[in-house]
Amino acid sequence: MLNELKRRIGDEEKADLFLADAKAMAEAYTGIRICEKDESELAAPIRQAIIRLAVILYNREGIEGEAVRSEGGVSRTMEALPLEVELMLKPYRLAKVIS
Q: Rounded to an integer, what distance in angstroms lies between the CA atom of residue 50 and that of residue 47?
């Protein structure tokens, strides 16, 4: 995943940081211990979702904490977990039982 992310963002120095953040976010959403698994143990859609999320996090660098941004008449809304990534991860989400 790291090599693919490096090719996509072109920033080899920061790629591992964004990949780690994306894995942590995917882990928090799905409940799967992604950080403890080998990359080959993850389903292909999970790997692709993590890469997409890492690219999104890279592109958002510098605008952390903003929910809405307007520039030149164009307004952008930021989501914590973008819908496209959520849809990729949702089938792998583990159920939790609360007693």
A: 5
